[in-house]
Amino acid sequence: MNRIETNRLILRAITESDAEDIFAYSKNENVGVNAGWKPHANIEETREVMTLVFLGQENVYGIESKETGKLVGSIGLIADPKRQNNKARMLGYAIGEEYWSKGYTTEAAQALIQYGFRELNLDLISAYCYPSNKRSKRVLEKCGFRCEGLLHLAEERYDGEVLDNECYAITRCE
After folding, report:
1. Reported confidence tier of residue 174, pLDDT bands at 50, 70, 90
2. CA–centroid distance for 66 within its chain
3. What is the DSSP letter of 45?
4. Which of 47, 65, 69, 79 is the most exposed place for a label (fewest CB within 10 A)?
5. Which CATH homologous superfamily contains domain 4-122?
């Protein structure tokens, strides 16, 4: 897996030794709910999620702060379940609340988008968020995504609430 560096961040493979850092931001009730997953109750839950979602996954990265060496979030380009196109991937990310509004997510996303178009030869990168997730929408706008529209009642969240998805995309030529 490639390692991607920006001014302040290293995007790298997630390893089992990252469990404590991932638990630190995943237990926060303000982080997961914005992405549709429940806050982690304990480190064992984090390790289970890591096995299913992060470990050994292609194009899924930990976001490490160069300043502290700490893993502060995760980001990835994964298959988009809403598109049947091998040259399209979906961008997803989560970052610890203490790193919100500092530009880290935008910095990581811009680097991964460039990687997706240049190295993976993608034609399109999509992203989805709940209409209430203003911070995520702002990241996508800063990265050049355009809103494609609203997919009504698109996703059942962990708590049973069914929510709309705002659909975003950026193409290679944008």
Report:
1. confident
2. 19
3. H
4. 69
5. Gcn5-related N-acetyltransferase (GNAT) (3.40.630.30)
